[in-house]
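Narrative of activities, Objective 1.

The group set out to show that a structural description can be obtained from nothing but a protein's sequence at a throughput compatible with the screening campaign. Below is one input-output pair from the validation batch, recorded exactly as produced.
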Amino acid sequence: MIDTLDQVAGWLSPALVVQLQEVGTASVLTLRGSLTGSSVAALEAQIDQLGSTSCADVVVDLSDLSDIDAVGAGLLFGLQHYVRGRGGRMTMIGARGAVAAAVAADPL
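Output recorded for this entry:
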């Protein structure tokens, strides 16, 4: 039985919501939800959009990211490599708990 509207929203919501905005001289990617192998397509779609921006630097806001697996972390590290290759810098902010631990293990 469905107890609350929040339960319904949780079932219908995508596992990952990604927002891309240009703020000053940086592109800001805000991630909400869970970044796992089954949800990386949402982030990959926004990464494709980064190439069309004039911003070299990228800020990835992980404040609302609740979960990440090895596939998700690998995608973030790949993004970091891509940004560096374009002569930019990538900064990850707001990571907590298991998300912070996963992104602290930078293989690059």
